[in-house]
Amino acid sequence: MQRINVAIDGPSAAGKSTISDLLAKKLGYVHLDTGAMYRCVALKALQNGIALDDESALTAMLEQTDIRLTPDGKVYLDGTDVSEAIRKDNVSMAASDVSKLKQVRIDLVRRQQQMATAKGFIMDGRDIGTVVLKDAEVKIFMTATAHARALRRFAQNQEKGICTSDLETIEQEIQKRDDQDTHRANSPLRKADDAVEIDTSDMTIDQVVDTLYRTVLQKTEQEVS
Ligand code: DC
Questions:
Q1: Who has the most CB within 10 Å: 30, 40, 70, 96?
Q2: What phi, psi does 179 have (nearest 5°)?
């Protein structure tokens, strides 16, 4: 079967990562979670006491930083498995802070484009359809209400045994991050003109995966004919 690239953008906790993972397995594609890369930058900055707005120190740090995403969904920062550490609430907010910086974005976008040189990738983030993979054959803009997203993040944290804030605090943090991610000067979160918007608030995970699966199959058939 002809392979294509899929770009999935949208706000925090809209289900991008879970859906991308399942869709990738169903299609035999590779899922690249670009948010995990911003989270790695934030985690390393926090560990090393680097201010989250110190662009030159963060850029210098990135020169000495190895980030690896494995096909089974693990995230390695300088050889250490940080898959869980990067999901903590303080790292989420810090990731939104470092992702505002132009030089950080330039560095990570370059890495992301190098990772997806062939077809068969599902990449999720905020600027995939607009910047990283502008020529992706399928572009999805995935949304859900802040409340629905907070409920999901809360349940997810509890399931994984991650020490978590209460629901109300999570919802407030999600709204704050939405605001930051949408209003920043560099590559703000926005729907690409050619993206299809899907509101997942009232959809089950299976329904969303099925919808996207059919969209990808339709597109692959079009590409062949
Ligand atoms: O998807 P996520 O919540 O794991 O992303 C963490 C932060 O990184 C989020 O606040 C926005 C930022 N981000 C970004 O600016 N561009 C991307 N391609 C992916 C994430």
A1: 40
A2: -60, -45
Ligand 1 binding pocket includes 11 (Cβ within 6 Å): no
109 C-alpha vs ligand 1 centroid, how far in Å? 12
CA angle 66–158–206, rounded 5-degree value: 85
Number of domains in the chain: 1
pTM score: 0.92
- Domain contains 24: yes
Q: Is 133 left (phi over 0), alpha (psi -120 to 50) or beta?
A: beta
| C-beta of 181 in contact with ligand 1 (< 6 A) | yes
Asked if residue 103 belongs to a domain, the reply is yes
Other C-beta atoms closer than 10 Å to the C-beta of 63 total: 7
Q: Which of 103, 71, 69, 72 is nearest to 86 (CA)?
A: 69
The average pLDDT across 37-55 equals 98
Whether 1 is covered by a domain: the verdict is no
Which tens digit of pLDDT belongs to each residue from 181-195? 899 898 899 999 999
